[in-house]
Structure formats: C-alpha cells, structure tokens
Amino acid sequence: MKYYSTNKQAPMASLQEAVVKGLAADRGLFMPMTIKPLPQDFYDTIDSLSFQEIAYRVADAFFGEDVPADTLKQIVYDTLSFDVPLVKVADNIYSLELFHGPTLAFKDVGGRFMARLLGYFIKKEGQKDVNVLVATSGDTGSAVANGFLGVEGIHVYVLYPKGKVSEIQEKQFTTLGQNITALEVDGTFDDCQALVKAAFMDKELNEHLSLTSANSINVARFLPQAFYYFYAYAQLKRAGKADNAVICVPSGNFGNITAGLFGKKMGLPVKRFIAANNRNDIFYQYLQTGKYNPRPSIATIANAMDVGDPSNFARVLDLYGGSHAEISAEISGTTYTDEQIRETVKETWKEHHYLLDPHGACGYRALQEGLKPGETGVFLETAHPAKFLETVEGIIGEAVEIPAKLQEFMKGEKKSLPMTKEFADFKKYLLTI
Ligand SMILES: *Cc1c(COP(=O)(O)O)cnc(C)c1O
Predict the structure, then answer these.
(1) Residue partners of 105: CB distance under 8 A and separation at least 6
(2) Which protein residues are within 6 Å of ligand 1, measured from CB?
(3) Which protein residue's CA is at the shortest distance from atom 2 of ligand 1?
(4) Where is the Tryptophan synthase beta chain-like PALP domain (predicted)?
(5) Best substitution site from 359, 379, 387, 388 to test ligand 1's pocket, by max atoms within 8 Å of Cβ?
(6) Which of 7, 186, 219, 405 would you call most buried, defined as having the most Cβ atoms within 10 angstroms of its Cβ?
(7) Could you read off the pLDDT of 365-395 as tens digits, one per residue?
(8) What is the CATH number of domain 69-105+222-401?
C-alpha cells in the first residue's frame, strides 16, 4: 500500500517510509491510498469473533500488503493481550472501557502496535536504528514508553515538563530503564513539544540520526485504534443493540476518532459520530462556523484533550474532500467546561454507580444530551479514573481504589536527565547519543 501526504506536495511513501518518517516531507500527514471495505459476511458473523480475530481482519486490510501474514498476526495478538469490554452504564448508553492495558489508557494499543511494526522494519535489512522523540503532558509518554520497552533497534526519549505531571504519570516512564530515557525539561509542555519539533526540522541532527515521532500523526499509532470500533460493534450486536449505533469519542488531537471514521469507510455500520471536546473546542467551533481557527490550548481537568490545533484535523478534512457539509453530516460536536465535567462525574457515580474519568465524562454527557429515540450510544472511556486520582476523589468525596498495575509503577525508582528548554542544549545532547 502506498501512502500520500494530506498536503499533496510530497512523493508517495511505502508503509515503512511512512512509519519511520512519521510526517511527510511537505509537513503533511500520511494517508493510505485506499481504504478497503470488509466483506458483508465479516459483519454478519462479527459477533462470533474474538477481539484479536476482528483486529487481525482490520489490520490485514491496511497492512496486509506490506507485512507477512504470520508476522502481522503476531503483532496484533501480542498488542491485544487484554480485553476492551462494553459495559452498560444507563439505558441505551454503554461505556467501551479502553483502559485495561499496561498504562490504563487507550493509547496503549497504538503505542504497542507501532513499536512492534517499527521493530519488524528495523530487523529487516537496511533500516538503521531509530530514535523516537515524544513530548508528553502525561499519558502519551507512558503508553509509548511501555509499548517500546525492550524493542531492539529503537530508543525512546520522553520529554516532559518538570513538576507538571502527576507522580503516577511520571513513574510510568521514568522507572523503566533499558531503551527508555526520560528528559525532565525545565519548562512547559509547549516547550517540550517545541524541542521535539525543532529536532525534526534540524538538518544536522537528521543527517546523524534517524528520528521519528510516536504521536498520533504516525499511521502505525493511529490506525490500530480502528480495532476498538469494530469490537464495540461486535459487542453491541451480541447484546442485540447494534441498530442505529452512535459512537462518541472524547477528542483532543483527533487520532482516535479519525480511526473510527476509517472504520466507517470500511463499511462498519455506525450511524454517526460525536466528538466530545472540553473547553478546547476548536473542532466544535469548526462544525458551527465552517472555519478552523486554531488557538493556544487552555488547561482543563481533562488534560489529555487540551489541544489547541488538533493534528489529525487534516486527516478528517482529507477523508471528506474538505467538505464541511459532509463532515457535519457524519460528526456532531459538544463542548464542556470543567464545572460540567465535575457535575457529570458526580451524578453518574451517584445515579448509576459508574465512575467516569474526566475525559470519559465528556463522552457520556454528550450521549445523555444528544441521543435520539431509537439510537444506542457507546462512548469510549479513554482512561481509568484512578489515573486522575486527586481530581476524581475530590469530585466524589470518596477514596478511589488504585489498580495493582499502577501500584507496581509507584514502587519503581525515578530516573531522569535534567534538560533546559533551549534547543541548543537538547541538540548537543542528541549529538552525543
Ligand atoms: C489522548 C487522550 C484523549 C484524546 O485522544 P485523541 O486521539 O488525541 O483525540 C482522550 N482521553 C485520554 C485519556 C487520552 O489520553
């Protein structure tokens, strides 16, 4: 399969090039040339298949031309070593719990899949070692670091803002060792991101090192998230609720929802999508006005969605030929304040005894307010509420149990390298690795 750039000014790339480079030469995002529909009999029998079996069929449609079948199957099965259950929360509203992986957030699947696919390409002749740079405000760093841990030929550098991530988050990427290095930057998340961007643009660095990004601009990170949507549908079908399915996605950089839109293009019977935003509602405003106005992000309690210029918006536009009318026909939007998010976490706990995290709360509320008669809603619960312990405990006024996986991380010893926010220092460091 060939990949083109959303900016259409770069040559076509192979899957290997798209994964190793991350971004196209014209700074556009890679898109697969074709999105293959899956046959009707797959959808007819999907409720009898396992998560892994479903995911392999989906992965084969995207990556089957470029990766041998047994290797691809192994990558998929190894990535999906945990379940993603559909849990009923209220009448006609279900939570797809994406937080049962190693770092308890949905990015685990993309992180692991990308690590294994890149590992496969590196083992093949001719691909030199790759350095993955990732800037994080908390969740991405842990999912990527844990996904890449121990993969030969790849070294991961996690840049995070000193004093601005929670202790639980910090422990998940500073205690691993091996091929994972944590760089504690004396600055903000935006400073971390600026350092990573400057490194990708620096000619001298790129002559010395093979650098790539592991955020959702990378096709190997975001496409595997399509697995979730097919499995959600399979479980709805098992429950006899698959007609008029509406899927609601708490969205920041829009990688997750874009993977769902790809699923629909492959024939997945989803009636419509809702993108739930916090106060960083650039996409919501786009739907209302037809104008895309990026702006600096503002801090909220659903901080993984604090994005002021969603990188995958370019892919959404490309999928619908830039048509605002077509995009609005398929996706609606919502926007919630911290106050509304708190209210939703509290009420859902009180009325349904279901504990939402602040991101999932946006998704649940959008369905509560926006479902039409005859529709069944699924929201993606993107992280375990214990990852936002202080916020959630503060809202419900009760202690939240910390899962064993998180407790394990807390026992590790933090190791990180201090780094200033000056690019000259970061560059000097990278030239020594
Ligand atoms: C990353 C993240 C999101 C947003 O996902 P995008 O693909 O960036 O839209 C939502 N919730 C949580 C918990 C996340 O970590």
Answers:
(1) 98, 99, 139, 142, 143, 304, 382, 383, 384, 387
(2) 105, 107, 139, 216, 250-256, 304-305, 359, 382-383
(3) 304
(4) 96-379
(5) 359
(6) 219
(7) 999 999 999 999 999 999 999 999 999 999 9
(8) 3.40.50.1100
